[in-house]
Recover the amino acids of this structure.
């Protein structure tokens, strides 16, 4: 398979009466000259790394190499016990996303998914479903395969690098991948997964990449939390039968075009957006000197 | 592209370009040197020079020079580890004209006095582009398994190497020769599909006129 169209993947899966993940697992095994079990095991190892990163990231004493961030996931986990405004499940999911993104900034071991800057979103969604007993381990591993499949299309038809497409390409792609994975985990159809993917993309379209001091911390960590909320929202809409009026592949094309139109100052160069606010500049000086 | 390019790589944060890619650059220098380094001089250019401390680029490069992979938890403490192992490290910030923003030039010396110089850039997503090895212009990305064959520029050497690869059913995706001077030291950069066995590397090493063979594995 070519992975150039999400709706094409869905059509293929539905024609064969399979989930997206089952279709893609078989295809990837063939392409990589591995058995299905080997591809599955490799993905299972990545799920394990994500779970370990969640655990390590909720340490209240965790601090990043620059000293700018750390410890917020622990605050969120504590706060989630009270239920929070959006319920304890979503609050804990956000906490897991922040935990992994903070652990990344502290030179912890993570899975770039699709990038290091957006590494918290899939743990915040898929690992949350697993840790909260809403799915089994096998389903979680297969959900990562579905996420990866939509990510491959986005990478080929648009991009997944902040330097090329802004944050919409990193955290936006991660949220879209997670939304598709969540739909599959909840038993939705491939077509519903595609709608979820589209609605997540739409909700982060135009998001710029403006890292303070050029570091993968501010605002990247908190955008992973936002990505988790958007992924759950988009998945819920799709599962309720809401359809994206703009088909998913056209959303991906639009995201690529928006990325191309974005000024270089807003694409990971730390020359625009939050990076050049007075506080952003002060924090930069604090880390690197003037 | 496959599934694990998107759900992966597994890496030590925070940045695929400034951390994971930097480990891989250091590792290339380690591979070329072929022995533990006792001295490393690292010149950082562009964005690497500006932000290396916040991204742990310094730790990542040194970890790579000690042979670590980009998912090694030892990267965090690589500078201390280098001190313990007697590896002396010096960093310089200097712009290399015309170089990619994330470029490092790594000069390493081994205990035997052997030296290696590698220049390369971290071009995003943990991918690298090596542009110079021991004064020879090269160009490979590390996205494929890459064999580097340092040899003397003598008739039949390339044929011998590629014949052995053919016998081992290793397909060549890309081949480049750097030969600064007729009859002198030259370098084959061979990107291959699939894996390269230790046995093949060992048999290439003992071919006439082959000085050294190094395999740089894809992520």
């Amino acid at each position: 398979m070519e992975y150039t169209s999400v709706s094409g993947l869905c059509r293929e899966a539905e024609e064969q009466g399979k989930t997206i993940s089952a279709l893609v697992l078989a295809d990837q095994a063939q392409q990589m000259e591995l058995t299905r079990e080997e591809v599955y095991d490799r993905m299972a190892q990545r799920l394990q790394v994500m779970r370990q990163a969640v655990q390590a990231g909720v340490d209240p004493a965790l601090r990043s190499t620059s000293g700018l961030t750390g410890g917020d996931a622990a605050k969120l986990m504590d706060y989630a016990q009270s239920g929070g405004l959006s319920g304890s499940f979503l609050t804990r999911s956000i906490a897991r996303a922040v935990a992994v993104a903070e652990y990344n900034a502290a030179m912890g071991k993570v899975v770039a998914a699709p990038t290091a800057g957006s590494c918290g979103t899939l743990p915040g969604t898929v690992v949350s479903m697993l840790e909260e007993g809403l799915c089994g381990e096998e389903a979680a591993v297969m959900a990562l395969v579905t996420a990866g499949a939509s990510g491959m299309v986005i990478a080929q038809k648009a991009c997944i690098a902040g330097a090329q497409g802004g944050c919409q390409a990193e955290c936006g792609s991660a949220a879209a991948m997670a939304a598709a994975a969540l739909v599959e985990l909840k038993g939705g159809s491939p077509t519903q997964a595609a709608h979820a993917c589209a609605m997540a993309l739409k909700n982060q379209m135009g998001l710029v990449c403006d890292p303070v001091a050029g570091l993968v911390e501010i605002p990247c960590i908190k955008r992973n939390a936002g990505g988790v909320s958007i992924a759950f929202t988009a998945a819920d809409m799709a599962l309720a039968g809401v359809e994206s009026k703009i088909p998913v592949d056209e959303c991906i094309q639009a995201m690529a075009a928006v990325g191309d139109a974005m000024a270089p100052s807003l694409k990971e160069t730390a020359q625009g957006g939050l990076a050049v606010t007075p506080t952003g500049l002060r924090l930069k000086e604090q880390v690197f000197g003037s | 592209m496959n599934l694990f390019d998107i759900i992966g790589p597994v890496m030590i944060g925070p940045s695929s370009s400034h951390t994971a890619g930097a480990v891989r650059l250091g590792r290339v220098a380690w591979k070329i040197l072929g022995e533990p380094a006792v001295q490393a001089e690292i010149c950082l250019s562009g964005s690497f020079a500006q932000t290396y401390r916040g991204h742990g680029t310094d730790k990542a490069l040194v970890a790579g020079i000690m042979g670590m992979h980009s998912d090694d938890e030892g990267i965090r403490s690589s500078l201390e580890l280098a001190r313990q192992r007697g590896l002396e490290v010096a960093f310089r910030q200097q712009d290399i004209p015309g170089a990619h923003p994330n470029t490092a030039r790594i000069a390493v010396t081994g205990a035997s006095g052997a030296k290696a110089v590698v220049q390369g850039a971290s071009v995003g997503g943990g991918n690298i582009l090596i542009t110079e090895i021991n004064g020879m212009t090269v160009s490979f990305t590390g996205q494929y398994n890459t064999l580097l064959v340092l040899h003397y520029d003598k008739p039949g050497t390339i044929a011998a190497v590629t014949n052995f690869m053919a016998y081992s059913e290793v397909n060549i995706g890309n081949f480049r020769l750097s030969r600064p001077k007729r009859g002198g030291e030259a370098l084959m950069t061979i990107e291959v599909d699939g894996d390269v066995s230790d046995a093949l590397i060992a048999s290439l090493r003992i071919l006439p006129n082959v000085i050294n063979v190094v395999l740089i594995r894809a992520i």
Chain A touches chain B through 52 residues (CB under 8 Å).
